[in-house]
Amino acid sequence: MSKKISREDYIKANGKSRGASLALTILFGPLGLMYSSPILGAVLTVAALLLLSTVVGPVIIWIASIIIGDHCTHKVNNKVKTDFEILMR
Length: 89
Hints:
There is one protein chain. By secondary structure, the chain is an all-alpha fold. It has one domain (7-87). Helices cover 72% and strands 0% of the residues. The chain has helices at 7-14, 18-28, 38-50, 56-87. The two termini are 19 Å apart.
């Protein structure tokens, strides 16, 4: 007998937490972005390291990481919702 999963349980199990994304990017900047977007996190981490001699570059990248992290987490969660709707048809 198969158990039917609720939409909320599916999203919770497969989605990403926007709060966790925000906390990680605030604390760790581009490294925290690896939670929601590993490729962008790696690219921005390298960019921040390359621009370490300037003060403005890493600060801009840190702030961008917070914004991008929230956007990517939102996109992942929307995809999870869409996937659930497709699976339940």
